[in-house]
Amino acid sequence: MIWILLFLLFAGSPALAQSNSQPNVIAFGAHPDDCDLRAGGLAAKYAALGYKVKFVSVTNGDAGHQSQGGGMLAVRRRAEAKEAGRRIGIEYEVLDNHDGELLPTIPVREQIIREIRAWNADIVLAPRPNDYHPDHRYTGVLVQDAAYMVTVPNLVTDTPALRKNPVFLYFYDSFTRPQAFRPDIVVSIDDVYAKKIDMLEAHVSQVYEWLPWHDGLLEQVPKDLSARKKWLATQHPENVLPEWRSALEKRYGDAAARVQHAEVFEITEYGRQLSEEEIRQLFPFFPKK
Ligand SMILES: [Zn+2]
Fold this sequence. Notes:
Helix content is 40%, strand content 11%. It is an alpha/beta fold. Strands 3-2-1-4-5-7-6 form a 7-stranded mixed β-sheet. The protein is globular. Bound molecules: zinc ion. The site of zinc ion has 5 residues, from loops.
């Protein structure tokens, strides 16, 4: 009897997850805060549904500051990333590769393959391989190179291969050469926008120190804690861009007009491809048709 029940349970669940009906999600950024900026809202939404979500920073961020650096900065940034993950209920790992020196080597590719396999991932997010920052570019290349290879058992034999190639998604970027980002999936993050800002705020060394310094805005950062959080939100309004509107309307219908804050993703050609029904299963946020 129990076998019949188990069979019905598994036969009835969508063929999405590697091991259960809730997809496992893993995102790769070059630096501790990259995933947060592009997919912190999506991660918070998945975490609220009880999905397993992990952010991985491929470098330790040890070059990202105007007056600190090296091992001490890496320690600080690892702690910030951990706190950021805690704030939205996800896991956060920082790999110990040097910031500003990332290359698409076989050892780093193997690290990525191991991470995707160990997480039993159904959805993998990463930057596109065209970007202003070499670490971002090579993170894009590394994850692209890990797609498909995660299913090949003869590689990285210490971690069992996945039976199904995951869905690989790109984070948003505004670069247009060789081609512009295609907004395949736009997700409203209105319900978790405050959480996303809260998550970003955990990266104190970045959002209140390094990035404003680099952009010549350090004088603007308020000293008062609540004032500076409001200022941070002004730096990350996450508004819906005009070119995302039609993808938003396709899935949200009339409700699209009310969406204020959003994140957007492109489905890469290197992983599993999705039907419209599967998109709605993997992104269970859109109003029912
Ligand atoms: Zn970065």
